[in-house]
Write a structure and sequence with these properties.
The protein is α/β, with parallel strands linked by helices and about 250 residues long. It has one domain: Spore Coat Polysaccharide Biosynthesis Protein SpsA, Chain A. Helices cover about 40% and strands about 15% of the residues. The chain is built from 10 helices and 9 strands. Strands 5-4-1-6-8-7-9 form a 7-stranded mixed β-sheet, with helices on both faces. Strands 2-3 form a two-stranded antiparallel sheet. Strand 2 and strand 3 form a beta hairpin. Helix 3 crosses helix 5 and helix 7 runs antiparallel to helix 9. About 40% of the residues are buried.
């Protein structure tokens, strides 16, 4: 079996509406996207880390940040996240990738590596890996490039922000849940995604508390369990955010 080329795709653009330019907001002298980059770089199994953004001029700064932090970048479609990923796969010869949304500053490298291991142990038969049980923002998806190619062939829209339904609802793919997840990560009472002003307060509190990038998700969970007032800074937003996500879901096939 040929060597597997694995990547983490950091998906980000500057065009946010509820929290403008949130990827460029600084916490302790680093932009939020740099905090995510530093976490993702702790993956032990990723062959490449690639920032995937758009061709819009305002996203030039994200490419500069990627270069400054020693990772690759790819520029593609403004609205079609799937085609952007597909272009990155083609350019960098990627077989399987794990996504890390630019909003998810504490995306956990241990879970990223679990996804890479699970894919290889399945003899590369998994098309799509997800987890409905981990802390919101700790893990997104693992995707086989061949499955991504198939989705791009059958979809009939370039609005693919809520893209998972093309893998989970078409009946075309082998979809699995991420397994062997440490119990400490199986929480539904913590919100770790950057979408609103109080989310920024939540992330700022934690980053300033630990003071550097060496803390793990386990450290964060233990800190939150001892400081309910921090956990509740933004958790009240979760239902609103979740409903907003659901309202955007649509499956448009050829």
């Amino acid at each position: 079996m040929s060597k597997l080329n694995k990547a983490v795709f950091i998906t980000v653009r500057t065009g946010s509406k509820r929290l403008p330019n949130k990827a460029l907001i600084e916490i302790k002298n680093k932009t939020t996207i740099e905090h995510l980059i530093q976490r993702v770089k702790k993956s032990k199994l990723a062959d490449k880390i690639i920032l995937c953004t758009t061709e819009l001029p305002e996203d030039d700064i994200l490419c500069e940040i990627a270069e400054r932090n020693g990772i690759l970048f790819f520029r593609g479609s403004t609205s079609d996240k799937l085609e952007r990923w597909r272009g990155s796969c083609n350019k960098f010869d990627i077989d399987f990738f794990v996504t890390a949304d630019g909003d998810d500053l504490f995306c956990e490298p241990e879970l990223i590596d679990l996804a890479f291991n699970q894919y290889e142990e399945s003899s590369r038969q998994i098309d799509f890996l997800k987890s409905d049980d981990v802390i919101c923002g700790a893990f997104t998806y693992g995707i086989k490039t061949e499955a991504l190619d198939r989705v791009c062939e059958v979809k009939d829209t370039d609005d693919t922000e809520m893209m998972w339904v093309y893998f989970t609802e078409t009946g075309l793919f082998n979809v699995q849940e991420l397994s062997n997840i440490p119990e400490i990560y199986l929480r539904d009472d913590i919100r770790m995604t950057l979408d609103y002003e109080d989310d920024l307060k939540f992330f700022t509190n934690i980053i300033e508390h630990f003071g550097d990038d060496k803390f793990t998700l386990k450290n964060i969970v233990k800190y939150l369990d001892n400081n309910d007032e921090v956990r509740y800074i933004n958790y009240y937003l979760h239902e609103q955010w979740s409903n907003n996500q659901k309202n955007k879901i649509k499956l448009v096939l050829k």
